[in-house]
Amino acid sequence: xxxxxxxxxxxxxLITGAAHRIGAQIARSLHARGMDxxxxxxxxxxxxxxxxxxxxxxxxxxxxxxxxxxxxxxxYAGMIERIRAFRGRLDxxxxxxxxxxxxxxxxxxxxxWEDLIGSxxxxxxxxxxxxxTLLRSSSGCVxxxxxxxxxxxxxxxxIYSIAKAGNAMMVKALARELGPEVRVNGIAPGAILWPExxxxxxxxxxxxxxxxxxxxxxxxxxxxxLIFLIRDAxxxxxxxxxxxxxxxxxx
Length: 251
Prior knowledge:
The protein is of the alpha/beta class. It is built from 8 helices and 7 strands, in the order αβαβαβαβαβαβααβ. Helix 2 links the parallel strand 1 and strand 2.
């Protein structure tokens, strides 16, 4: 068990969208297990710097911040060069960054399409492509944060659902492309954290009622699954694990 606990020490992970919510919890958990981190953020500089400062209280110099808009193709190569200069290696890429908001069909705009497809599909694909050389050198792995709505669309959110469906196929396609050196898997969260835009109590109750375990999950449920996929799943690739309390068992 001790050897298992030390398996991540000294390795390097890039987490996109790391300043808030599940991304920040992932960062804290991987750092606590001895990993050095690259924390990507888009606009949340204050939160990202606060997280970096907190983590580096225990290990100064162990966290690199990277600001980038993953919707813009010029960002990817520059990010990888800074990662290479930071530690010379990359063991784990967590594609967590995601835009999420409603786009009812009659009101959806091309700008919303570009943003949601960009953050949920284009960004993870091209960032993984740029990171492939470093990941192959370390026999590393990629974990995408997908969504249960990749399979069952969320009403009022067609563009987001389409983007996450593409993200789910990306997991499978890139597992074929990057094997045998690099494993690629996904995690599909259910009701873990409620959307920041606000969800009514009635809507929350309906979601919980349709969940087999009749409760919400926590970011730590996602983290435990992530640790398993990174550290313990040497013969698993191209798979997506639903961490949803059984929500996806029902329509």
